[in-house]
Amino acid sequence: MQQRILTAAVAMAMAGPVAAQSAAQSTTSANELQSLRDEIQTLRNAYEARLQALEQRLQAAERATAQAPAAATTAADPAAAPAASGVASVSPGAATAPAGGGANAFNPAVSLILSGLATRTSRDPAGYRISGFGLSPDAEVGPGTRGLSLAESELAFSASIDPYWRGALHAALHPDDSVSVEEAFVETTALGSGLTLKAGRFFSNVGYLNPQHAHTWDFVDNPLAYQALLGTQYGDDGVQLRWIAPTDQLLEFSAELGRGRSFPGSDVGANGAGMRSVSVHTGGDIGDSHSWRAGLSVLQASAREQPLTGLAADDSIATAFTGRTRVYIADAVWKWAPEGNATRTNFKLQGEVLQARRSGSLVYDLGGPAESAGDYRVTQSGWYVQGIYQFMPRWRVGLRTERLDAGSPNYGAHAGLFDGSGFQPKKHSLMLDYSPSEFSRVRLQFARDLAREGAADNQIFLQYQMSLGAHGAHGY
User: Fold this and answer.
1) Do the record's keywords include Signal (predicted)?
2) pLDDT at residue 438 tops 70
């Protein structure tokens, strides 16, 4: 009995310190948790106080910006002072202007691309044509004028309109002192779910090169396939909806409705859409050094009494097309840069295949004594492949080869009036460019152009491109 009492006493003596230690650890853990909670609350309070201070500064700046024009008006016109102090003297524009709009309205991003050319050709550019292909009389094809010239320059403005929209304008300054609007559109920024809506005038999203501005091209000119089948570049007035899928691999869909005013269409002056297009693009990375993108596009445009040159053997005979054109485009591009670093060396390989199917009626000798109409159907195609290699910082070399197929046109009742020789236009171009910085570039290009039957046209271009002001990043 005494032995059991002794054993119990020893056990209680040993358990006492253990229990005391556990209680102390529990108290310490509770204190640490409370300390962490206090620190988090302190950080939260400091953050909220900082955020409120910034919001107050923003509101004060907006009020100062909004009051500045009114103060200037009052100083310039003393008679306006009583009205300025009246509560009811609020202009309709001020009542509807969004908060903060004054600061944004006068601070858009502005950029200017200056470009110039020195051109030498072995054949007269005035007689340039792409044999077997009917083009609009105002189509910008060929090497342009000989000698020194101011090439097309670009003036661009862009800014956020509010939390939901942004706007952009790109004006082309042509060598003949004329100005045209290349793009002028508004675009959503907050639709969510990968959706973007654009409305206005813009370059269509079909193909790879078509959405790109001229100063981003790797050669002085666009390929023959674009010149012959899309009038160099297709732009239109309309709406565009794009969707990027929430996947690891790029998957982009786009659909467009347009007026149809540009070649291969023409402004038919009717209600509804004269142009429709759909495209899908996919791409991704392969390891750290490789990336790719590929896509398919379809563009359909309608034309009414569209003048065409280059179909008849005699250029003085005018023809006009009424009907529908459907253009199919397959594009692909692959890029390589060691470990993803393209600053020193990189390589880009790209190519596109275009096919145009035209069906409708053709008027021969429009406005002349032999004017007559008949059926017209043709399938024409073209392709190009080009590679651009940056072999050291600031220096690149590029090679492009291309070919067209005029097809076998069905002129219906006019079959005997057109002479199809089966000639296939082609062209080969070699370029070398040097970029002293990311804002300037000088390019030397040699091309052997066989777009016209007969002797080759050997073309030499020396081009400069300079970028001034804010300019956004370019697409892939």
Assistant:
1) yes
2) yes
